[in-house]
Amino acid sequence: MNKRFMSILIPILFFYAQNCFTNDEPVKFKNILQEEQYYNLLEEVRCLVCQNQSLADSNAPLAQDLRNEIYEMVNSKKNNNEILDFLVKRYGDFVLYRPPLKKNTWLLWFGPFLILIIAISIGIIVIKKQIGDK
Amino acid sequence: MIRYLLPLTIFLGITVLFIYGLQNDPRYIPSPLINQSAPEFNLPTLHEPELNIKMDTLKGKVSLLNVWASWCAACRIEHPILNNAVRNYDIKLYGLNYKDSRSEALIWLKDLGNPYIESAYDKDGVVGIDYGVYGVPETFIIDKQGIIRYKHIGPINNEQFDNIIMPMIRNLEEEK
Amino acid sequence: MIPELGHFTLILALAMAFIQSSFPLVGATIANQTFMALARPVARLQFFFVVISFFILVYSFLINDFSISYIANNSNTLLPWYYRFSAVWGAHEGSLLLWVLILNIWTIAVTYFSRGLPEYFVARVIGVMGLISAGFLLFMLFTSNPFERIFPIPLDGADLNPLLQDIGLIIHPPILYMGYVGFSVAFSFAIAALLDSNLDTTWARWSRPWTLLAWIFLTLGIALGSWWAYYELGWGGWWFWDPVENASFMPWLIGTALIHSLAATDKRGIFKNWTLLLSICAFALSLLGTFLVRSGVITSVHAFATDPTRGIFILLLLGVFVGGSLVLYAFRAPTIKAGGKFKLLSRETFLLLNSILFLVAMLTVLLGTIYPLIIEALNLGKISVGAPYFNAVFVPIMSPLVVFLGLGVITKWKQDNLFQLLIKLRYLLISTLFIGITIVLVFFENHQLKTSMGIIAALWISLTTFYSFYLRLQNKKNKLAAMLIIPRSYYGMLLAHLGFSVCIVGITITSNHSVDIHERMKIGDTIEFSNYQFNLRDLKEISGPNYKATEAIVDVKKNETLITTLRSQKRIYTVRDMPMTEAGIDAGFTRDIYMSLGEPLDTESWSVRLYHKPFVRWIWLGSILMAIGGLLAILDKRYRTAKQRKKSIIVNNEVVS
Fold first, then answer.
1. Using an 8 Å Cβ cutoff, are C216 and A26 in contact?
2. Does C277 touch chain B (CB under 8 A)?
3. Whole-angstrom Cα distance, residue B45 to residue B51?
4. Are residues A107 and A79 in the same domain?
5. From the list B4, B14, B30, which residue is nearest C334 (CB)?
6. What is the ipTM of this complex?
7. Is A106 near chain C, with CB under 8 Å?
8. CA–CA separation, C265 vs C267, rounded Å?
9. What would the pLDDT profile of C322-375 be if each residue is shown by its tens digit?
10. The CATH number of the domain where B140 resides is what?
11. SS3 (DSSP) at C237
12. Which helix (H) or strand (E) holds C611?
């Protein structure tokens, strides 16, 4: 039924039992490109504690730490690939909300279009067939 | 009739998948660090801030690295098991005190006993990030060459210690 | 004693459900009038018992009976009475009871509004609904009894999740469930039709108003959920592609295909097989949603406790209902004769193509939702599939749907002339592109490509819709009289399609042109953002019935004139010690200004987030228009009285044959 019970409640009782208030200090960038890069990245990364939130939305302390790391990396002019690589090395592909195109995600990325082509072709064949049999 | 069976086939496929899915824990995330060199660190020790402990210290013998904190309720459940383990077995157990207050961590060890040879003090959780820590407590088994061979997330119970952790340590010790 | 009474009436309801499903179904097969006649009274009796049980749970919540474990976990003496009421469906057990109650509401509606239908058909419909009810009552009694006692009795309860302490959560679940569960009626009609030895298209006409009504509720339910997430979660998002959202979106996609396909089956006697399959599919997806949410197979923000036996039980129900009906379908579908013929260039073609596209869209959402599960089951690792994936894949799949929709409404039934169609299209296409591109160039500076695609799509839908209206009136002398003759369902279609384009405008502009900032503010500070000045006038400490809060009062000015005053709160719910943000929103037709108070940074400063969200209201406005469109279609004279219905069936059959 209802939707998001924010996971700050569910992090299984033993993980992060501490209810800590995150340091919510606004971050500032020197240029707008870096700011965009930073906020876009936060949307792409899944928080490991509140597992159904992106880093942008999560209040978990670990999310705050990771935001800081990403902030530092963006500031030191690392590109998106380098930053996401840093995270994947530590937490695995799980942190990426946009799964990378690999052998095991081939079906995920191309499947919908494959289904689209097959389904539309079947539809057209069925229509043509019913025109034919009189 | 074959094409009318297609919906049923797809449905059965999905159902089989769900039966598998019910047996997995969706929150468990395998670590990409398994069989990789344990990330280097150089941190002050918990007891003596001016002394440092490095990853190299752990090499040479199979060791356990346990990530803990005094604010972590589950660590309190796990602690007696670790105390027992070091009493009963010859294991090298190190601690990584994660995002904690030094004074509270010290009181915690004083009250509950200190099973660790040494605890590294990771105040800002930087080393924690390098180790991909996301749910305290976590325990790593690191072999003689300093390679992470196993990671346990959440508190270890007695059964897991005897049936998973200890056999793994024994096996690794037999490696050259 | 009272909770035991609630438990007992559930058992009685189960007994009724068994009678309701067995006798009428058997009776319809062996033509036993007495057995069939049992359907209505027993269904009403079951409804009666479920209602008693439900009100006992409500009553126990209102009197704070913490000896019931469910209440102890989800309520508190400090909780205001209206939230104690809505807490009934705040977690797994109670929401399951709501599920069963709503199924019974639909069943009882069927018993009253089915007088013109043949007795054996009604017996089957009610019988199938009884089976579903029995399944869920068994599930509840075996794994999720809401009346279970605990001992020792706690002095106070653990409180309702603060996120649910909100007006949106009082109304969202019942409405959503009305939609979800409402598809059980379409499902039962389809099963009854499949069990019928001479299957024609009359069932489609009977099923249509029910299916439309369920679809209306589902549309409103999803829109409400999205609106609630928008204001309650405090970061201005309105759709997250969370598994639970997907669980409600998938039946909606199929339901939308279904209402169109049903219309074609009803009017033209075509797509019978396909409509039956969609009817089964829509309800199957409702059940699948229930499984995903309650089994713990997928991590979701949803906190329904996860107990493996529950997962197995729902999977079993899913297997019985969906598996069983698909087996029945596989046997019966090949014997169903195709209806009226149509050429490749006809409205039927576009209807069918769009129906297929909705199915593909649903399969895409399903694939994304369960893909992590597939990968893990095959031991290929652990991945996440989130909003960036869905946004990337969903839009290209939906684009041809928009094109076909426009073509469909201006194409004739059976067959059309390509040349004539191209002539009609000429001005439509040019004006759509011209207006669309002009709007984007004049009003938007960035993301022009994406924005123009959305705007053009919306314009295409609305212009073709208006054009079809024009075509209908074109050759009529007295336009006004002609407008009155046009059936309501046609107006419903117009309105729903316009609603869809309004939705697209909202989604396109909000997604591409929302801006936000995150700032540190203390009393007296002014921030310039998006051509507005935000002045933090005051910070107030407030204490509510079960929370403490800090409220920020911000005056919003534009060119020195006061536009509005926003109030946003940071609350701490004391029982669970959980922080919540109450956003301050100034809603407008073309933009929302949205403020959410962050955390205190030092003794006098707070972090504050400000959002400017253009056209966000259009998303919900469009949904409401779609729902009203559906309502108009239900009110069509076509479904009025039994006599008229029979007459028109005969007429319809003649047309078809």
1. no
2. yes
3. 6
4. no
5. B4
6. 0.86
7. no
8. 6
9. 999 999 999 998 888 877 788 888 999 999 999 999 999 999 999 999 998 888
10. 3.40.30.10
11. coil
12. strand C606-614
